[in-house]
Design brief:
The structure is a single chain. The protein is 85% helix and 0% strand. It has four helices and no strands. The protein has helices at 2-23, 28-45, 48-64, 77-130. It is rod-shaped, with a radius of gyration of 22 Å.
Length: 131
């Protein structure tokens, strides 16, 4: 299971880096190449969505089938610590799922905005050259 979380973490980091590179000012000449690369990567990165859905269902299943330790008195201290650790890992993993999905949505939105902005800039240049 750790490999799945590592893959999701790397995918979220790559998405975040791409969003950061797209939004940094001063990268005008590199932006065209970056946009074309990102547009080619967006469709394969869409596989993140069902992957996140699968992982969130896995977290839900583990949550429903986990032994409960409602207080420190009902379990041994070791079991209680293991239970608390499991809850913390589930919360961390759910946060990772949400962030991967948010970064994917942001990447799509920012990329489409940059493409639209480039199209509008080229129209403005054509209109300036026409006059």
């Amino acid at each position: 299971m750790a490999l799945q979380w590592a893959v999701l973490g790397y995918a979220a980091a790559v998405e975040a880096a791409m969003v950061l590179l797209l939004t940094l000012p001063g990268l005008g000449p590199l932006r065209k190449g970056l946009v074309s690369v990102i547009l080619n990567i967006l469709k394969p990165l869409l596989s993140i969505v069902p992957f996140c859905l699968f992982l969130s269902l896995d977290i839900y299943w583990k949550y429903e089938n986990r032994p409960t330790c409602k207080s420190a008195d009902s379990c041994t201290p070791t079991e209680y610590l293991r239970h608390q650790k499991s809850i913390m890992k589930s919360q961390r993993n759910m946060l990772l799922i949400v962030m991967a999905l948010v970064f994917y949505c942001l990447l799509c939105l920012v990329t489409h905005l940059v493409v639209k902005m480039e199209q509008l800039n080229s129209r403005v240049e054509k209109l300036k050259n026409r006059d």
